[in-house]
Specification:
about 325 residues, alpha/beta, 2 domains, eight-stranded parallel beta sheet, 10 helices, binds phosphoenolpyruvate, binds manganese (II) ion, transferase
Amino acid sequence: MLYEFKDAERAKEAKELVEREGVPAWYIELWGRYIVATPPGAKPKAAVKADVEVELKTEYQLVSRQWKKDPTPVRIGDREVKEGKVFIIAGPCAVESREQIMTAAKAVKELGAHALRGGAFKPRTSPYTFQGLGEEGLKLLAEARAETGLPVVTEVMDAADIPLVAKYADALQIGARNMQNFALLKKLGKAGRPVLLKRGLGNTVEEWLLAAEYVALHGNGDVVLVERGIRTFDRTLRFTLDVGAIAYAKQHTHLPVIGDPSHPAGDRRFVIPLALAILAAGADGLIVEVHPDPPRALSDAAQQLTFEQFAELVEKARALARALGKE
Ligand code: PEP
Ligand code: MN
């Protein structure tokens, strides 16, 4: 159950009243609302005099559109990811050097990106491959922001690194392989930074939305959902982009939903068509890998776009946005 109150005091009293019955209850302030949540199906007997009371049909509650009908905008630096607009996050898979990230940042900014991406802590399949520059990479991202004005998005892999990454980044990316790292998700609740939550490569849409529910229930409502492809029987492309998941998530949650065309493509020749499919399915934006010299990239070399390809993507995305009645 979700209970909404006009003031914090009454909400806190209600939480205590419910807990006295032995029903677990959480008090949270999200999206300008004072909320008391109890587990789905747990209906306390005590008379909770809430201003709004909703019983949801889903396991996830706070992120559900059944309850909050208006779309939630998420602020990243001085920009906003929101419904009705196409937000583009672009940059290399990993930060490799000052020259590489500065060149990439200036180019993607010039070509129309709204935010810069770049990994400093990389979740690599093999322990023998490039693992990222760590804090040095974060410092270079901060330099690139100072130079271009683009807010920066970067991955945090370990809960212990949240304060460090949050010190430099405008938004924290949670990688596909960490989507169900529940200790990490709980700590993001107090990270003080918006979260880009990638869907796990072997996770259902419901598991993805419940992962977002973890972050919200622990106090952080600034979550952007990211579809990045799942593993299926078909290995023609690197992963199978699930466009249906984008349409579903847009209808069932009020959070912004964006898509990553780079990781499912695995090959730069397929990135633009997948990016357009993501937008056509109703996504609020893209996160795409772009590198100054893709063949020489230290990670994901095959799938990163050249600046020229990124320019083509932005031009096509603009035309599609217009056709969809978006900014
Ligand atoms: C990435 O964005 O470079 C990345 C590792 O993504 P994912 O977690 O989706 O594989
Ligand atoms: Mn990558």
